């Protein structure tokens, strides 16, 4: 029986060095995924689309009458753009497939990013044996943005089998290599301590409002965010703190407004696992709680493997006007995944961008001292 899992960094490097992928530098390889860099070949299109079977993305762009975008142009909020990635797939091995998610920094400023592949009528999916170009669809939803060559907005994880845990493996995982879920005092939670469950191998996480800043609501602005800037923008021009009521236990989400919130639980992903945030069941409320999805091996483990997890930042949009959500309410869902091997370096050993977050955390573009 073949052992299955997601490819770690050392095997992703081998995939590149063996010539299966081009346009990827070592800095683009993460512990459990690849961050493909952007080119400046871009088009504005009238709306979202998928290529038909036996239709390349270039042919689909021509079909929908895409208009070329000049380098340095502002990508307007609410508009749809297609950009080619520098990474091409020469030929994916027959046993491998890929799937994608926006990067956390993209999700935290409400950019919707979807991958498009030639002849594939699905978003965010690279089938086994694929050969062709890769593109991303970019839709800024709250802030206008400016993109540049070489920046990275999404991540690709390559797997050789279904990597997801079932309930039995999930119960094992709670005792694996120092635990998975911790409360805010640092106490490790057991499988039996998880109150809410869909009984499908996932973990339901709850909303945390008892942080010094419980969350942020986006402010309408026409000021663009340049995506090559780090620790640059005054966050007060783009976000305001959320207002609590019911003695600090609840907040009200406005219809279609964008929020940065946090899980109450601290999540720790052992080095031999990865994680993906998944959509919540609509019975939990008419809202979206995340847009970025991947959590790398070693998240919350600590550089010396003594970590007790970190909360996950949530990128929340409500589709009900005046939706009231409260502290401790189920709001997010994660699924653990098997790694094919343990990566040589895990997330917390790589000077991570969000290695110090404790509670809601704005994206890397904003000044940290504000």
From TrEMBL:
Record organism: Candidatus Zambryskibacteria bacterium CG10_big_fil_rev_8_21_14_0_10_34_34
Gene Ontology molecular functions: dCTP deaminase activity
Comp. bias intervals (Polar residues): 350-359
2'-deoxycytidine 5'-triphosphate deaminase N-terminal domain sequence ranges: 5-160
GO terms for biological process, alphabetical: 2'-deoxyribonucleotide metabolic process
Residue ranges of the region described as Disordered: 347-370
Full protein name: 2'-deoxycytidine 5'-triphosphate deaminase
Domain 2'-deoxycytidine 5'-triphosphate deaminase C-terminal: 205-366
Leader sequence residues: none
């Amino acid at each position: 029986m073949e052992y299955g899992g997601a490819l770690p960094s050392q095997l992703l490097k081998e995939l590149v060095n063996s010539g299966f992928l081009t346009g990827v530098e070592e800095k683009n390889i993460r512990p459990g995924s690849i961050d493909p860099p952007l080119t400046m070949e871009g088009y504005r299109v009238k709306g979202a689309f998928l290529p038909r079977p036996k239709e390349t993305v270039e042919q689909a762009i021509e079909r929908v009458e895409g208009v070329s975008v000049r380098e340095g142009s502002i990508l307007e909020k609410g508009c749809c753009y297609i950009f080619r990635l520098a990474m091409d797939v020469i030929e994916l091995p027959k046993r491998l497939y890929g799937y994608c998610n926006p990067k956390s920094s993209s999700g935290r400023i409400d950019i919707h990013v979807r991958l498009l592949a030639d002849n594939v009528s699905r978003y965010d999916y690279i089938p086994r044996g694929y050969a062709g170009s890769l593109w991303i669809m970019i839709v800024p939803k709250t802030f206008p943005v400016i993109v540049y060559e070489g920046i990275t907005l999404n991540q690709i994880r390559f797997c050789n089998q279904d990597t997801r845990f079932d309930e039995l493996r999930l119960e094992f995982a709670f005792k694996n290599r120092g635990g998975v879920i911790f409360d805010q005092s640092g106490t490790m939670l057991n499988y039996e301590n998880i109150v809410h469950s869909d009984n499908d191998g996932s973990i339901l996480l709850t909303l945390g409002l008892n942080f010094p800043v419980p969350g942020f609501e986006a402010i309408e602005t026409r000021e663009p965010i340049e995506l090559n800037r780090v620790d640059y923008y005054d966050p007060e021009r783009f976000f305001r703190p959320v207002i609590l009521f019911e003695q600090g236990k609840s907040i009200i989400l406005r219809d279609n407004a964008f929020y940065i919130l946090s899980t109450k639980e601290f999540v720790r992903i052992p080095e031999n696992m990865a994680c993906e945030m998944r959509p919540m069941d609509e019975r939990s409320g008419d809202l979206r709680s995340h847009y970025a999805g991947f959590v790398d091996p070693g998240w919350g483990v600590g550089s010396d493997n003594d970590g007790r997890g970190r909360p996950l930042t949530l990128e929340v949009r409500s589709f009900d006007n005046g939706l009231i959500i409260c502290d401790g309410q189920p709001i997010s869902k994660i699924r653990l995944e098997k790694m094919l091997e343990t990566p040589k370096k895990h997330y917390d050993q790589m000077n991570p961008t969000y290695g110090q977050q404790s509670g809601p955390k704005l994206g890397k573009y904003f000044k940290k001292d504000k």
